[in-house]
Amino acid sequence: MYEISSEAHFSAAHHLRNYIGPCENVHGHNWIVRAVICCQTLNELGIGIDFRTIKNALADIVRTLDHADLNVVFDPLNQNPSSENIAAYIFKNLEQRINTDVCKVTRVEVSETPGNSAAYFV
Questions:
Q1: pLDDT of the chain along its 122 residues, tens only?
Q2: Could you tell me the CATH number of the domain that includes residue 89?
Q3: What range does the domain containing 47 cover?
Q4: What gap in Å lies between CA 119 and CA 52, rounded to an integer?
Q5: Catalytic machinery residues
Q6: Cα–Cα distance between 94 and 6 in angstroms, integer?
Q7: By CB distance 3.0 to 4.6 Å, which of 22, 33, 35, 120 could disulfide with 88?
Q8: Angle 118-54-69 (CA atoms, 0-180°, nearest 5)?
Q9: pTM score > 0.85 for this model?
Q10: How far is CA 79 from CA 17, 72, 73, 74, 89, in A?
Q11: Sign of the torsion formed by the C-alpha atoms of 33, 38, 39 and 45
């Protein structure tokens, strides 16, 4: 099994509904997203999945979140825009673009501040 990963970044604002503390107020982060793809085999070039494929798919998803009010994105889903929910959102969108018989998205990690992250994985 091979593990390939790529990172993307975006800036966005959010607030956590029903949270008691400073995060209930609108605030922003410079988010870092790391996606991990596992591939069972390599192609004839010795590549599991091209980094460009991951980067392009991840960039398309992150573009919808960049400079957005994340509550606008997550309210229709009936979810708080927490790091956990953002990781799951990106994971589910990414697997629709990446998953094949050979390669699967296995983990998406989202960091909202240095040293603090949440991940969604299978």
A1: 999 999 999 999 999 999 999 999 999 999 999 999 999 999 999 999 999 999 999 999 999 999 999 999 999 999 999 999 999 999 999 999 999 999 999 999 999 999 999 999 98
A2: 3.30.479.10
A3: 2-121
A4: 22
A5: 23, 67, 112
A6: 12
A7: 120
A8: 50
A9: yes
A10: 9, 10, 9, 5, 10
A11: positive
Q: How many residues does the chain have?
A: 122
- Residue 97's identity, in one-letter code, is R
**Which residues are CB-contacts of 96 (< 8 A; sequence separation ≥ 6)?**
none
What SS3 string covers the chain? Answer: CEEEEEEEEEEEEECCCCCCCHHHCCEEEEEEEEEEEEECCCCCCCCCCCHHHHHHHHHHHHHCCCCCEHHHHHHHHCCCCCHHHHHHHHHHHHHHHHCCCCEEEEEEEEEEECCEEEEEEC
Count up the domains in the chain and report the number: 1
